[in-house]
Design goal:
By secondary structure, this protein is mainly α. It is built from six helices and no strands. Helix 2 (about 40-50) runs parallel beside helix 4 and helix 4 (about 75-85) runs parallel beside helix 6. The protein is globular, with a radius of gyration of 25 Å. The termini are far apart.
Amino acid sequence: MFGIRAAIKNAAVARVAFAQRAPSALVARRYYSDHEETYEEFTNRYVKFFENVDEQFELQRGLNNCFAYDLVPDVAICEAALRAARRIDDYATAVRVFEALKIKVDKPSQYEDYLQALKPVMDELGVQTKEELGF
């Protein structure tokens, strides 16, 4: 009986100690830089990234990171991503760039504007959209 009381007491002490430590673990992450990246800096960073991609994993990781932001990537980023996809011979990812754009834009007319702006690159690289492929 005495052993059970000691175990309960130790558990209560541990619970109180944890409760006292818990708030420090929940402190928000602090960033030491006040610099916010501009849209132009964002565009330049990803264009340079896609120009240096040499394997499929890097390309897909870059696209996931780029499209995770709360903005629609610039045409220059999409062009660099398409060129990277064709350079490493990854046609499927090139098609998925357009799928991601279609999901990311607010209006269908914006998607059509992107298609129109990227049409010369699409023709040059031989890339079609999912709809043009019949899916």
